[in-house]
Every structure is written in C-alpha cells, then in structure tokens.
Write a structure and sequence with these properties.
By secondary structure, the protein is α/β, with parallel strands linked by helices. Helices cover about 45% and strands about 15% of the residues. It has 2 domains: about 1-50 and about 145-280, Lambda Exonuclease, Chain A; about 50-140, no CATH class. It has helices at about 10-20, 25-35, 35-45, 55-75, 80-85, 85-105, 115-135, 135-140, 195-215, 250-270; strands at about 25, 145-155, 165-175, 180-185, 220-230, 245. Strand 3 (about 165-175) and strand 4 (about 180-185) form a beta hairpin. Helix 6 (about 85-105) packs across helix 7 (about 115-135). The radius of gyration is 21 Å and the shape is globular. The termini are far apart. The model has no long low-confidence stretch (mean pLDDT about 95).
Length: about 325
C-alpha cells in the first residue's frame, strides 16, 4: 500500500484539488451541512468561516501528537524505547505549540488561562499514566504493523468527478490479515449512545474511501475509536478507565447508506462542473431545543443568520 506523503494538511488537499480544477469535501463539511445547511453555506459558499480557539482543541491536538509519536517509536523501533520517552515533557511541549498556533490564528486574542492550561495538562498526565499501564491491551506488536500516521484520503467521489473526498486518518494498522483504521478522540467523559451515533459517520466514511483509494476490500477493513477521557468518576460503583474503545458497525448495508449520504450531499450542493449550487435555498436549521445553534459560530450573528429564520427541522 503506497501512501502519498506529500499531502500533510487540509491546505494541501485544497490546493491539490484546485490544481485539478476540482473541489474537495471532508467529513466536517458533511457534518456541518447535516446539522444546518445555512451554516454550511455561510462557511463554504459565502466564505464567512470564523475560527473559535479552544483549550480543548489545544489539548486534543497535543494528545494526538504525543500518542502518535509514541506509537511511531513503538512500532518502528521498540516498545521499550517508546516507554522510556518523556511523555509528560512531550505533552507539555505539544500543548505549547498548539496553543501558539491557536493564538496566532485568533490574532492574539486570549482564550484560556495559565491555570486552566495547567489543570487540563494534569488530565493529560493521568491519561498517559493509564495508557502506559495497559498499553499491551490496546496496541500489540505481534502480527501488527503500523502502516501510517495521518494517512491522507484524496479520492474522486462516485457521484461527481469534479468533487474529491479528502481527510486524514489518525492511524492505519495491519493487524493479522485485516487493515484497522483508528481515530483518536479526547473526551470529557465516557461516550454515551448519542455520542457514539453522532460520531460513527466519520470512521465509516474513512473506511469507504480508504477502500477505494488504496484498493483494499471493505470487508478487510475494521474501524475503531480510541477515546481518551479527561475525567472519570472516582466514586463509581463500577471500575472506571481513562480509556474507552468503540467499534462502529460497518457492514454492507451500513456502508451503502454512507455512500448514499455522501452522494446526496454532493448532488445537493454542487453542480456537475464542481461549482457550488447557489440557486437553491439553504435553510437555517436550529433543531430541537436549538441544539444545532449551541456551538454554532453564528448563533449571535443575527445579520448572517436571523433568529426568526431558524427552523426546528429542515
């Protein structure tokens, strides 16, 4: 399996698609559109993207990079060498780098405090402490090969040759005779049924288009979320773990639905030549109890999204 290592960022995907005269879409685009078509239009057609910095994004980025560095050393060198790495220092440095990047993107606007950074850093230390204790349960070396970290997806869609599916996969492993796709997530607490349902589309999307791009049968690909929890319930009646794994169902009927959902999205928002469809209406969809507005960057921007136009259902 040959991985294109020249694609390293979303900007690389965008620029590569632009050179080909095509558009590129991602899981986050489809998710935004599904939640609220008007929010998607503001971001991608009107170019009104707004960056909202967050300590949780800083933390998640740093944990990703630290975990990926550990696994790269473990599989490409040795588990002993990986376990001797100074993970607390690596996490601290990665958090510092991610913070500086977010601060730059927000044009110097402060979005957290030193106290909060120290507090969430301690959560990270507990996560890696728990991970090292049970590393062998989650990641074994026997009959296992690390195929790639941040593996790029950049493949033509099936419904429009002028639209590419793009993204980056956290980890791709060969485990026995199977390919396994991992997505690392940081979370405040254990994922419940709703969170699992809301998140599953992403890995199913990755599976479908990884299969197409790298010529691997879907039946030979497994998917898993590797969830690292910042908090656990100390006084719980049941043992609590900082680590949770979740394997979304991804059989043939489910994967067919994923393909249909992607096709429906593309056919709804793109013309045949890959240009955006500006002639249709993109409704502002608040959802039940305005749940879609809760974290929306336009929730108080009534010029771009008048409150009276927000409907309960599309």
């Amino acid at each position: 399996m040959k991985i294109d290592k020249t694609l390293k960022s979303p900007l690389d995907l965008h620029n590569s698609a632009k050179k080909l005269g095509k558009k590129v879409i991602s899981n986050s685009q489809i998710k935004s559109y599904t939640q609220c078509p008007h929010k998607w239009k503001l971001m991608y057609i009107d170019g009104k993207k707004e960056y909202t910095p967050s300590i949780f994004f800083v933390f998640g980025t740093a944990v990703h990079e630290t975990m990926q560095n550990f696994l790269e050393v473990m599989y490409n060198s040795s588990a002993k060498l990986a376990e001797s790495m100074n993970l607390p220092l690596m996490l601290k440095n990665n958090m510092g780098s991610a913070y500086k990047t977010s601060l730059k993107r927000s044009k110097g606007k402060q979005f957290t405090t030193k106290y909060d950074m120290e507090d969430i850093y301690k959560d990270g230390l507990e996560i890696f402490k728990a991970f090292l204790k049970k590393r062998g349960i989650y990641f074994k070396k026997k009959n296992t090969e690390l195929l790639g970290i941040e593996v790029p997806l950049f493949v033509e869609s099936e419904s429009n040759e002028n639209v590419m599916i793009g993204g980056f996969i956290d980890l791709v492993m060969r485990e026995g005779d199977k390919i396994k796709i991992y997505d690392i997530k940081t979370s405040y607490k254990t994922w419940d049924k709703k969170k699992k349902k809301d998140s599953s589309f992403q890995l199913r999307l990755y599976k479908k288009y990884f299969s197409k791009q790298y010529d691997v049968r879907e039946d030979d690909i497994e998917i898993e979320f590797f969830i690292l929890k910042r908090k656990i319930y100390e006084n719980s009646d049941f043992p609590q773990s900082r680590i949770q794994t979740f394997q979304p169902s991804s059989g043939k009927p489910t994967m067919k639905k994923i393909g249909n959902s992607v096709d429906d999205f593309i056919l709804s928002v793109f013309n045949e030549d890959g240009s955006y469809n500006i002639d249709r209406e993109y409704k502002a969809t608040a959802g039940i109890n305005r749940v879609n507005c809760k974290w929306c960057p336009y929730k108080t921007n009534y010029d771009l999204c008048p409150r009276e136009n927000r409907v309960k259902n599309a």
